[in-house]
């Protein structure tokens, strides 16, 4: 809360302790007033308000201070790969500075590498900070739910529009229809006969809840506290006087706020992030070992000594050569790190979000795309997620030709759109008198309305009453009662006509005792009639007659009553909420009633008279209503089952209703024993082994669940290694959405709190969209594996190249800035294009991958070690070929006039000053002539052509290797290059970029390379193309291994069955 105690602790603690010591919901109203030292007539005094505020603070939610911008920046460097890059950049900068002291072009070139690495790290940090900075928006959205004003009694006077922030425990507050509750409060008295609250967003209940001033049980859950109203919920019917018991962070919505904050502090890394961190740690060790080996191999070049009497003496250390080999080690680090990997992953995930957006799945956090691919459990809310959260009539029961005969009509449709569905086998051409009376009661004895907002139909008022009005529209109106001249385009045209025919004069409001509502209406004939709807049992008990199909009235005998009761039982067993209809024509005192000035009006002011007025009724029929499942949910859950994904339903709704829905949508089979698979939240928390319960195969159901129960379920599943997706739309879902591996909010019916706490929002509130998104996530992950393998195999080749150069003692073939160019620019487009690989046809028929599955299996690692070794041999080999051979495979290489040397001379080039008669000639490179002022420069500045050949071979091999990455084991014959045209475009782009740095003089000078001739390009292709043949052989071996493994598994399974 806003105010804190002097010791820095929030004064909230005392409120929590008080609520534990004094449970207001379990005490009567007198005890509650006594506890808070207040009377309902006077309210708190000004001095009491000041005292309470000193203790409890303001009625507002805490503002958790998030990490500072600098903390967020530093967190971006808490990554192994980033640290290695940072170290390499610092060392490169120091070496560039050292070289820069000597001046010259190479000194300027050396700065390109550290600056590019620093730029990568800065961009990565900016993106990371931007994402982290949006993390706490859920808490801000939660504050918007709070009411802004309240009507309060203080010092014996009523204060209208008091800011809700000023409320304190003990305040007396009056609530009316439409008010948003400003704090958690105890109902002291009802001003109207009934009060109903819409609290679905907090508790998950699909229907508005009746409130009373009667105390509840001490151990009641939040749904069972019927004498309490909660902050953020809305009054949909009636008015009442309440006592504020909890404010700010002590309210139920405050607890949700705390849970969201705690969940946001414990967000786990995505499976891919974990894999990349593990890879980074392994890479650190590998780089360290290889750098040490390179150092040991070359130590003889910068540290020499002589032996005297068996002991080394006369040590000679060359700082210049030591620095040179240290630069080689840095080059090795640059070669080993896939610098472009973070950028390519981000690009691939961003492209994935666009694909998902086209399927109505809006991804708020990029890593969620990848997490979806390994989802093993979907924990779904029921109300508004699996169901429409729109009440609708599913069955209409009317009386037949005889009192012991009933007619049943199935009603289609699951929304408030009157045109959505119809009534099966309904006599719409000639509506009989019995059906007309049912339609009249449903239309006139009704306080709701329906409005159209865009393409959506929304209910204003009680959802059950809105469903009845939709039923009336589907029933239509008899031709003789309709006005042929009026073609009304109104949404509720039939209801409007019934209300015109029966003018409403008075209302007998619903109450919990008689469980019915009645209206006195005046018909066209001029006589008054009482129309009643309510709980079927209560209506039957107060009925003496029954109306038949033709409108005639006969006594309600035992046989007829039992038939109706049996029908009611069958409908209730199917989780339908049933309402009965009845009317009364002979109203005695109310026969001439015309409004509040009539003598009988005083009877309507006392609700205790309503039951006697509603006696001697004529029963007409009943309806069964429900919050129906979404049409597409059944097939979506079947798809989940086929994909190896379990569906767990967690709802705040009634257990019987939830079980019926779960059977209907396929979470449970129709005849399945679910005694060990369906629990209330309380029952689950009392289990000794909760994890064992959650490990059961198939679906599970948890009803009457509170936010803490949802969090516990998600937490236990995650501890068990499951990758959990949690769906929901209400405030009560937000903490679990935040805690889950991927939180999925409903875009249409979802609250802003749920959306801000989620990783993904469903734009169409369609459960099947989740299944489509999971399939897309799996496809994206497979493509990411393809380009990660491609980039890592390329880096292995670069490491092999540098290691072999150092091991053989030949001049450095590739410099760090060239390797950086290859890793960032040349490799980037093909790696990104691999993200467009077409999805596998059976991607949703395979079980989900385990979150701890390795990115690179031992066999794949072996394959790429072989490929990497070939890359090293080819890159170093072409360097050696240029120096030692005049031709290769019939390709003439001597036309540039360069001098050939022996391999021995090349591998001992550092001894060049001691060679006699060595005088290499100048040679051409394009239009440029490479002149040598010192013969030994032939192995330094003169290596520019050999270096260009090595770089070109490396680029060409990596382009051809990208074709190998189209499929993990599939041959290019089965998955040809044109299966992914983007890859061909990317290869062309990369080759184009390479040609640019070769043939643009300014860029060629920066990268230390020269143009190549046609023959030299033929040499590059001859050396690079075999990489495809080598990997094709390895893929064939891999397919044979997989076939053998599958055969062994099938034989093992068959053996077990026998």
From TrEMBL:
Domain spans labelled Cation-transporting P-type ATPase N-terminal: 23-97
SMART domains according to UniProt: Cation_ATPase_N (SM00831)
The chemistry this enzyme catalyses reads: Ca(2+)(in) + ATP + H2O = Ca(2+)(out) + ADP + phosphate + H(+)
Q: Name one GO biological process term.
A: intracellular calcium ion homeostasis
Give a yes or no for keyword Magnesium in this entry: yes
Gene3D superfamilies linked: Calcium-transporting ATPase, cytoplasmic domain N (3.40.1110.10), Calcium-transporting ATPase, cytoplasmic transduction domain A (2.70.150.10), Calcium-transporting ATPase, transmembrane domain (1.20.1110.10), HAD superfamily/HAD-like (3.40.50.1000)
**Gene Ontology annotations for the cellular component aspect, listed alphabetically:** membrane
The record describes its membrane topology as: Multi-pass membrane protein
Transmembrane domains' residue ranges: 80-98, 110-130, 282-303, 323-351, 787-810, 861-883, 982-1002, 1017-1038
GO molecular function, a single term:
ATP hydrolysis activity
Name the UniProt key words of this record, in alphabetical order: ATP-binding, Calcium, Calcium transport, Ion transport, Magnesium, Membrane, Metal-binding, Nucleotide-binding, Translocase, Transmembrane, Transmembrane helix, Transport
The enzyme's E.C. designation:
7.2.2.10
Q: What class of enzyme is it?
A: translocase
State its location(s): Membrane
**Is Translocase given among the entry's keywords?**
yes
Give the family this protein belongs to, as stated in its UniProt record: Belongs to the cation transport ATPase (P-type) (TC 3.A.3) family. Type IIA subfamily.
Classification via PANTHER family: CALCIUM-TRANSPORTING ATPASE
Task: Specify the protein name.
Answer: P-type Ca(2+) transporter
